[in-house]
Structure prediction request, 108 residues.
Amino acid sequence: MALFSWITSVDSDALLDALAEPLQQLGLVIDPHVSSASQVLAADRPNCGLPLAQRVTVLASWNCSRSREAQLEVRSSEPQLRAGTRCQHIAEQLQRANPGQAQIGSNS
Prediction:
């Protein structure tokens, strides 16, 4: 399983507001049944045409809501040590969308 995890600063009191646009631009759909102002779950559409192993899930939750620090995790079933996975691509795109992050666990 490929996993990218990092802590980032967010410019909003609501994670859903801060992440909705970047996630949608990456083609991910936010799950409204699980997501809220303090937690966001997004994934590829079930009928996206990608192999199951390449489908990505993103989870964001507050690390410290007072200081607006959130932890983001990007996961897929792709091999952990393979470079250039879709999981890696999505994680890099999200990191570029918010350059003020401190990465804490690439491919861990």
Remarks:
- Strands lie at 2-9, 28-30, 39-44, 57-64, 69-76, 102-106.
